[in-house]
Amino acid sequence: MTDLLLKNIRPMGRETADILIRDGKIAEIGAGLDAPGVVVEDGQNALVIPGLVEAHTHLDKTTWGMPWYAGRKGGVLQDLIDNERNERVPLGLDVHRQSMRHAIALIGTGTTHIRTHVDIDTDHGLSLLEGVLKTREALAGMIDIQIVAFPQSGLMVRPGTLELLDAAMAAGADIVGGLDPSSMDRDPKGQLDAIFALAQKHDAPIDIHLHEPGELGAFTMELILERTQALGMQGRVGVSHAFHLAMVPPARIEALMERIAALDVSIYSTGHPSANVPSLKAMRAAGIRVGIGCDGIRDTWGPWGEPDMMHRARIVGMKNGFRRDEELELLLDTASGAGAASIGVAGHAVAVGSAADLTLLAGETLAHAVVLQEPRPLVIKGGAVVARAGHAVIEAP
Amino acid sequence: MTDLLLKNIRPMGRETADILIRDGKIAEIGAGLDAPGVVVEDGQNALVIPGLVEAHTHLDKTTWGMPWYAGRKGGVLQDLIDNERNERVPLGLDVHRQSMRHAIALIGTGTTHIRTHVDIDTDHGLSLLEGVLKTREALAGMIDIQIVAFPQSGLMVRPGTLELLDAAMAAGADIVGGLDPSSMDRDPKGQLDAIFALAQKHDAPIDIHLHEPGELGAFTMELILERTQALGMQGRVGVSHAFHLAMVPPARIEALMERIAALDVSIYSTGHPSANVPSLKAMRAAGIRVGIGCDGIRDTWGPWGEPDMMHRARIVGMKNGFRRDEELELLLDTASGAGAASIGVAGHAVAVGSAADLTLLAGETLAHAVVLQEPRPLVIKGGAVVARAGHAVIEAP
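^ Those are the sequences you sent over. The predicted structure of the assembly is below.
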């Protein structure tokens, strides 16, 4: 593991100090540190925060670095899903190459942890997973990648998918995924019983895409919470999007959030600009573990997005109507330290004893850094420099 | 006026051609043009569109280029208005300097026309207007600036403001502004009668901020439409924000949009991420003239925004759930040619006879250019190069 002396940085925006890293962990934080023989990096008075955490994305989907894809469709969710499943091969979307491009761009912009969903379906089997597994291996030590085996095309409606999810978990996926058990799969009890059983079998966490609106989404959330409690899976279940938490009446939202917090279910939000999204402040105030994510980046679904958690933080912040410095600081925490906790990575902090996964930011204060469109001066993973001036130290394919 | 031969560009994404500019106007578009003695610019195969149009901003408010402002407040609209009015002087917000920074940054990002609101209130009199008038004069020929005399702190609730608006129009403002005649001013009939009379007196157009929600906003909109019709002000009235057009029932929205189109009232949208915003596609389909704007940039109200209409177009596009190429092209048109029409600038096009106000964009296609975060290669105003590689040819103060 790596030793490094990081000089002249402002930990969490506090006064200028140095950070000594020993064996990939933060050994000391203080002024005027000295460590003979240890490599020195001058932070030039940049801010330093725990590395950014991408809590919800799809490394297997992006067209980043490919020619412009002009075939995007309108329509309902099912149309977008079908379009992608049918276009992957003709488009030449090589998942290993594309997930490398995506993940390396995230390293360049200061991300140290990714949770990615990977499509598992009866057309592609485990081939997409294999591409992302190769990427995880290739980037080991530079970025941590958690993989969700994600039944994008449906579970109950596509026989054979459950067996593939089982195989995906055996092949190296970390987390059992789910998708709109009611609206998409038409059988909420069926899907949820199946994925909770699979999670129990593999002793794995769960992460469910839940776009379902209003009371339908609230009903499905209740089914998830019931199973979390009954199976003792507190702290191991996550729900992505949860638009219903911005659509049902305020008292119902409050009661749901209270129960979500009590059962320690994480919520992942992308601040989806054209959807209703749950209030970040309300979730944090309720004690819910929350992470944020970019979701798909320039994929067959949509043209938007940048592989940059600061870009996404701004979208989430604008969506939440944040204005004040304390709100921007809450946002930055959700994109880094608190975001890590939401995906089960504890102790992600600029603190002695923590892993030296650190991102330097330009800016006068943490709040200023949130809105400033500047490259990250330096990114450190396990004590090693993995990016400088907005670019990862390795080239993307 | 200026002559220029712009070689190797793709007009509106079509095949590569040249554009010959004579006396500030587009004289010829074609392949292999030659014009002895005329200065040549090589467009290096960039796309070219009519210059971007900022249809709703506040040049008198930005802290751009100043130290980070940490004093932003929460609360209701009135709190934000009061905070700004009280903080302008202690903050040292020099309106001429700040509006120069803001407008020059807009030139650098490819904007050729701005409509700006400028606060007129009984605390500051016309002093903020004077700062923006100086900027307009200093940048004459580089960017066109329309000025709305804007009663930000209220009209009926602050006696003396109407007289100041009158004086502002005499001093050089072009457009009579208004603000939430019901919710803010508590007297919709009073405010609207006053500003329509003032517009008649100065033979000037009107532009009204209308944030009012739901049926209240629809009611105020009806009052505006009634006066537009009664006074024969078709084509000279604009309404900014119009959130109610995304809040009342669909049939009511449709009927309102039909009447707005029939009376040729323009709508300006900022794609406000945390508000309900009217559908850009529905407005355009109804035949309404629509422009988009960045609104305030990093001002005392909020930390967000960039002085860049392509950045704003992406926000508006994401908010509208646009995915397909034709939607991105509609968006780009609303930010340029159609946006110009919405502020009364006709014939803003890449066409023979049009003013040579042109913005070059990187990208494979127009749709690609919308999502690509790249500097504008070249910006031309009246045939003169005013920006290169993302930077205006003059320095900001």
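Residues 4-50+349-392 of chain B form a domain with the Urease, subunit C; domain 1 fold (CATH 2.30.40.10). The first strand of chain B starts at residue 4 and ends at 11.

Shout if you want it in another format.
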